[in-house]
């Protein structure tokens, strides 16, 4: 098994105003996810959230710790959210198996020592997307499915943003320390997500785009409302969004994305909205 690890340091919004395309991508785009038989981990210094993936094909993948964590095992001081965007697979947590089908999630609390990932069929491997944040308390592991989560029907066909927001991992569904995750699916003909755009100065967020057809892309908007920037994102890539940044996107076709948050509070609706007329 191979572990691919990198660390991303915070950036000041005044500095980002001067970034060119390559610098924006270097600091905020995570484009090496979903590699076969590899554990990929990107440690961000935004709330110390880790964005990662595990795609077991030939063998199981163990959630290994890395030297930078200075921990005996990965979840010694952390909690973990897992969402499967591939074929069916199993997440084993200290000897107990949880089968995750496509778009199902698993919350794993602090203290779980032995976590591994396995695909049901190597021909259609599971693709586990991972978000992890520091934790202060151990909450129970919980399997979360699309039919049992809170679903918000948002937007309209008229504004090209008709979408279903599946709140898989928020505080009225599962107890967590600070991690929240969910999955948004855009309806055919809709391309805009999170419009009006918003920011929350009390939390960071990461977007992982998937189910995007070949040769299609998403233009992810970021930056301060009066100093917006954009990054073109391909299928199965993620964007790290600092607390000072808006986050929104527009695709060349419909798609789905996973949002993950961590920070000051667990209030999903704690956000400052900025309509298109307010942005520059």
Write a concise keyword list for the protein shown above.
Jelly Rolls, 280 residues, 23 strands, globular, 7-stranded mixed sheet
Characterization of this structure:
Its EC number is 5.3.1.17. By secondary structure, this protein is mainly beta. The protein has a single domain, classed as Jelly Rolls, CATH 2.60.120. Helices cover about 5% and strands about 45% of the residues. It contains 2 helices and 23 strands. The chain has helices at about 15, 20-30; strands at about 1-10, 30, 40-45, 50-55, 60, 80-85, 90-95, 95-100, 105-110, 115-120, 130-135, 140-145, 150-155, 165-170, 180-185, 190-200, 205-210, 220-225, 225-235, 235-240, 245-250, 255-265, 270-275. The strands form 4 sheets. It has a 7-stranded mixed beta sheet, with no helix packed on it. Strands 2-20-17-22-15-14-13 form a 7-stranded antiparallel beta sheet. A hairpin with a 5-residue loop joins strand 3 and strand 4 (about 50-55). The longest helix has 8 residues, at about 20-30. The mean pLDDT is about 95.
């Amino acid at each position: 098994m191979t572990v691919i690890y990198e660390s991303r340091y915070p950036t000041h919004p005044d500095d980002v105003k001067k970034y060119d395309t390559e610098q924006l991508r270097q600091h905020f785009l995570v484009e090496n996810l979903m590699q076969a038989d590899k554990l990929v981990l990107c440690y961000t210094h935004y709330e110390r959230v880790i964005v990662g993936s595990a795609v077991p094909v030939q063998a199981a993948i163990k959630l290994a710790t890395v030297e930078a964590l200075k921990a005996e095992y990965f979840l010694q001081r952390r909690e973990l959210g897992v969402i499967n965007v591939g074929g069916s697979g199993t997440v084993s947590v200290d000897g107990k198996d949880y089968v995750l089908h496509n778009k199902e999630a698993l919350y794993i609390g602090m203290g779980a020592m032995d976590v591994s990932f396995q695909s049901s069929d190597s021909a259609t491997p599971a693709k586990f997307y991972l978000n992890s944040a520091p934790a202060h308390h151990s909450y129970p592991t919980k399997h979360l499915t699309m039919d049992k989560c809170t679903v918000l029907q948002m937007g309209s066909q008229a504004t090209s943003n008709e979408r279903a927001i599946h709140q898989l991992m928020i505080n009225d569904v599962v107890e967590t320390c600070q991690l929240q995750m969910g999955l948004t699916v855009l309806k055919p003909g809709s391309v805009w997500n999170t419009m009006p755009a918003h920011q929350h100065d009390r939390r960071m967020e990461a977007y992982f785009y998937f189910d995007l057809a070949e040769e299609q892309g998403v233009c992810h908007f970021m930056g301060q409302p009066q100093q917006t920037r954009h990054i073109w994102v391909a299928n199965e890539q993620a964007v790290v969004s600092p607390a000072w940044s808006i986050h929104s996107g527009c695709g060349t076709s419909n798609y789905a994305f996973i949002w993950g948050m961590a920070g000051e509070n667990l209030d999903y609706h704690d956000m400052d909205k900025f309509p298109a007329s307010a942005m520059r």
